[in-house]
Amino acid sequence: MSGTVVLEEKWPVLGRHVQAAWWLRVWTDLGRAPRTIDAYARGLAEYLEMCEREGVDPLTASRAHVGVYVRELTDRPSRRGANVVALDSGSSLANATIQQRLVPVRLFYDHLMEEGLRESNPVGRGRFTPGRRGGGHQRGLVPRLTKLPWIPTEWQWADILTVAAEEPVRNRLMLALAYDAALRREELCALRTDDLDPAHRTLRIRAETTKNRLERVVPYSAPTGVLLSDYLAHRARLSRARGSLFLSESRRNHAQPLSLWTWSKVVRRIALAADVPRFSTHTTRHLCLTDLARMGWELHAIATFAGHRHTDSTLRYIHLSGRDLADKLGRGMDHIHAWRIGMLTGMDAATAGTPQ
After folding, report:
1. Which SUPFAM superfamilies match (predicted)?
2. Which CATH superfamily is domain 3-78+86-124 in?
3. Which of 169, 205, 251, 256 has the most crowded Cβ, counting Cβ within 10 A?
4. pLDDT at 339
């Protein structure tokens, strides 16, 4: 069964609009990640359902009709109800979520324009126009809010480490690598035994596991290397087969590759036990990149280490680090990376070393 047929079964509205189904098929054939296709299908399906409710043909919809969809998104009740802690969109959906829902609609209309079925895109996008009043910037359909990445305070980090110290060796190693090499959740869980180079203490992050399909090689510290050796000895008791580095130890999936969702549950459990609920699988990456900025790493060096295609994302960590205050606040920051890894792996900070 093709991926497009599965999407049409999940969202029947896609099957009622030939161009929508065709557009998703093209993106699938181009090799886009399944999770990306699923997100595109969901956003486009919600928009098409709105068009049907309003009696609008999506091929001829105007900017006003797209506005109705945006209003529905901003007024939509949250499924989490009273559990919502903070809202950055002025509504029950976060600004980033609204932006995410609009992306497939914008791309769908780009497709219709390329096919000659429309002359303009009713969604539009923010752009810079020289000479335009107000600085030349034209706002997108929905204002984009850019927030700095959240990182824990030193006290919160210490609480997390206290809880993590009681975790099995696999979980401690995963936390250490996630911070040491600034790995995304998908990159961490997808590591294979043949991605390791213990002689040079490096990891190969394969292009197919990264967010933007950029392969990179990243270092890890000596203490993490010791923890890795301990885990490999433990892993050999589960399976001697090469393949996924991190294996499940549950009865149902014994010795099978550890899933993204299982790792997310582990981190969530640690976060709640440490009473730091904002701590997530991405926090260690934010923390590592911020620490590198604090240590004075150059922008492009941090971008290469992080696997950022553009430096715009990297700049957030420079701003967060307050590097302009380095002379006053950053004395000794060149040791903070080694200190964190020493805390994670249980080794003395003086012997931890830093990534080469």
Report:
1. DNA breaking-rejoining enzymes
2. Tyrosine recombinase, N-terminal domain (1.10.150.130)
3. 205
4. 78
